[in-house]
């Protein structure tokens, strides 16, 4: 594949991702409003308390997981979030 074609494909991937994310956000807002209109109540969770409560869960599975798996997953998540923030 030529370098120009590679650039086109990479840019198209970025463009479609942006399009999809915007569409997803729009649809989520619309459906949320429809549910609110029908009487549903949304509860905003305390994410800090939630994370604190769940912090020990990975330790319960370390014997079943491959060594270092959880740390590797956390590393990948941090790298993904850093790329996304750019």
Describe this protein's structure.
The two termini are 27 Å apart. The protein folds into 2 domains: 1-42; 45-86. The chain is built from 3 helices and no strands. It has helices at residues 3-37, 47-54, 69-85. 0% of the residues are buried. The mean pLDDT is 94. The protein is mainly alpha-helical and 86 residues long. The protein is flat, with a radius of gyration of 20 Å.
Keywords:
mainly alpha; flat; 86 residues; 3 helices
Sum up the overall morphology in one term. Answer: flat
Domain unit count: 2
Return the structural class: mainly alpha
**Tally of helical runs:** 3
Q: How many β-strands, per DSSP? A: 0
User: In sequence order, what are the helices and strands, one letter per element?
Assistant: HHH
Q: Mean of residue pLDDT?
A: 94
Low-confidence stretches: none
**Considering DSSP H and I runs of 4 or more, what fraction of the residues is helical?**
55-70%
The main sheet comes to: none
Strand content: under 5%
What Rg is obtained from the alpha carbons, in whole angstroms?
Answer: 20 Å
> Distance between termini?
27 Å
SSE arrangement:
Layout: H1 3-37, H2 47-54, H3 69-85
Brief synopsis:
This protein is mostly helical. The protein has two domains: 1-42; 45-86.
């Amino acid at each position: 594949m030529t370098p120009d074609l590679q650039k086109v494909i990479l840019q198209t991937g970025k463009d479609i991702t942006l399009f999809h994310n915007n569409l997803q956000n729009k649809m989520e807002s619309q459906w949320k409003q429809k549910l609110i209109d029908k009487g549903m109540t949304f509860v905003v969770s305390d994410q800090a308390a939630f994370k604190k409560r769940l912090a020990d869960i990975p330790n319960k599975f370390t014997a079943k997981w491959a060594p270092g798996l959880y740390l590797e997953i956390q590393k990948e998540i941090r790298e993904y979030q850093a790329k996304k923030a750019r």
